[in-house]
Amino acid sequence: MDDGRETVVDQPGGSPGPLPAGGAARGSGSAARSGRGDGQRNRWERSRQRRLRRRRFVAGLAVVALAVIGAAAYAVTWYLGTVAQGPAGSTRVVTIAPGSSAGAVTAVLVRDGVVSSGVAWQAYLFLHGSPSVGSGGYLLRRHQPYGAVLARLTAGPDVFPVTVTVGTTMYELDRQVESSVPQWSAGAFAQLAASGAARSPWAPPGTPTLDGLLGTGTYLVMPGESPATLLAQMVARFDREATAAGLSQAARALGITPYQAVVAASIVEKEGYYPKNFGGVARVIYNRLAVGMPLQMDSTVLYSLHQDGGPVTPADLRIASPYNTYLHTGLPPTPICFPSAAALQAAAHPPPGPWRYFELVSKDGTLAFETTIAQHNRDIAVARSRGLP
After folding, report:
1. Which of 134, 109, 139 is nearest to 122 (CA)?
2. What is the DSSP letter of 159?
3. What are the contacts of 159-163 at 24+ separation with CB within 8 A?
4. Among residues 178, 192, 184, which one has the least CA distance to residue 224?
5. CB neighbours (10 Å) of residue 293?
6. Cα 14 to Cα 140: distance, rounded to the nearest angstrom
7. Distance between CA atoms of 37 and 42, rounded to whole angstroms?
8. pLDDT at 2
């Protein structure tokens, strides 16, 4: 029945018939809604990714912060433990050379084990102030707390070296000690040395001086030590050197006393000057003594004048002194200087030989040894031709 409506009949393999009115509009609206949903999903996904990235960034910052805090905590703990150190160990005499920089002082402290870390020490000085460290010796301890080290360095040196120089006299040593050890009162060492309170086992009773009877070399005066302590150390060192030279037995074999052997050694030191000459000079001394011939040594005359070397004038040779070996035979009454261990050995064990004279014949200090005055005069002429005194 034809009622004015159009009937749509599906045909196999054919195209669908015309769409109902408004069908195309409904299909277009559905597609639009689907596009809007996809956009919203994309925006949500991008937002989620941004949130994830922010969380990862914050988590990374937290890890880094924890690492920095941990490292800082470790550094602080290490620094405090290093600065505290301790317990303090064995003592060390730390010597600071003149003009040492802060870095050089740090290197010495680390080398001697006083501080364990140069980095920590420099940091400590940055925080507490760097002292002006005077040159000299400081008595410190291994692993000493940094505060104690800083206080000690700030206070200045407290260890003082004193050297008994080979060939010098008690007169010279007294002055050297006074200038080297500022905490002792002026003249304290000299007064003690002259008082007879310190005795050498090699000196006869009533010996007026310690000249020749103190061991040569350097001594360290430690905090709180007295002149008596230093003098005892010097006497003990000489005792060891004389014993090592076999001085007692050698003196008996030479027909002299041990003290006279020390007197001879002191002349050997001054006249020979170089060890290569010592044996010959010792033999000349003993050969002259054996025949009653004056020693005629300039060094003994100069000793009475408190002079160390230099020419002897004709007026000097007329001085009425027991040390004037031009006027008197035999040995002078006391040693004229502190002899070295080599001079002691030469005086105790002189080589055999007939010599009675010697003369400087070379600028390198070589002495020529002669038996007769004629030989001696020829060597004097050779010396003068070479510009020697």
Report:
1. 109
2. B
3. 159/93, 159/220, 159/221, 159/222, 159/223, 160/136, 160/220, 160/221, 161/137, 161/218, 161/219, 161/220, 161/221, 162/218, 162/219, 162/220, 162/221, 162/230, 163/217, 163/218, 163/219
4. 184
5. 12
6. 113
7. 9
8. 46
**pLDDT value at position 70?**
58
pLDDT, position 251: 97
3-state secondary structure of 308: coil
Token pair, residue 238, equals: 């000489």
Bridge partners for 357 per DSSP:
370
pLDDT 10s digits, 25-63: 445 555 555 556 677 777 777 777 877 777 777 666 666
With a cut of 50, which residues of the chain have pLDDT below it?
A: 1-26, 74-75, 78, 80
Query: What is the 3-state composition of the chain as percent helix, strand, coil, each rounded to the nearest 5?
Result: 50, 10, 40
- Determine the pLDDT at residue 118: 85
Residue 31 has what pLDDT?
A: 52
Question: Which residue segments constitute the domains of the chain, with CATH numbers given?
Answer: 91-155 (3.30.1490), 160-243 (no CATH), 245-385 (no CATH)
Taking the alpha carbons of 349, 353, 355, 358 in that order, is the dihedral positive or negative? Answer: negative
Residue 268, SS3? Answer: helix
Annotate 183-207 with three-state secondary structure. Answer: CCCCCHHHHHHHHCCCCCCCCCCCC
pTM > 0.85: no
Q: Which single residue is written with the structure tokens 């007329």?
A: 318
pLDDT of residue 37: 65
